[in-house]
Amino acid sequence: MDGxxxxxxxxxxxxxxxxxxxxxxxxxxxxxxxxxxxxIGTLFGIYNMWILVRRMEKFDRAVAEGSKVRSxxxxxxxxSGVAAVAMALLFAEHIHLISTVIGLxxxxxxxxxxxxxxxxxxx
Length: 123
Known about the structure:
mainly alpha, 4 helices, 0% strand
């Protein structure tokens, strides 16, 4: 099975292409608010994924060393999601709220899809 860092690197590559598509959609379609929300949400979502990967690596080291296990950063990731939604609410005329929430979930949906494809190929 791939390591967490390799999975995260693959996901980042996929997300960069998705972000590029969102930028093109923002620049060349009349749905700028929707694409702005998708961009903001996806950026905060990849930030949340980065926090999770970093905390999981610390968690693995703590378990291997037998030391006390700390939190996985759930509060920080939740606060990041709240910040993305707050930004969408604050700039409601420029950022679509629902697309921001959808953007927050894109990295996790990609992670799920990538893991399903991996298991179908290797089992």
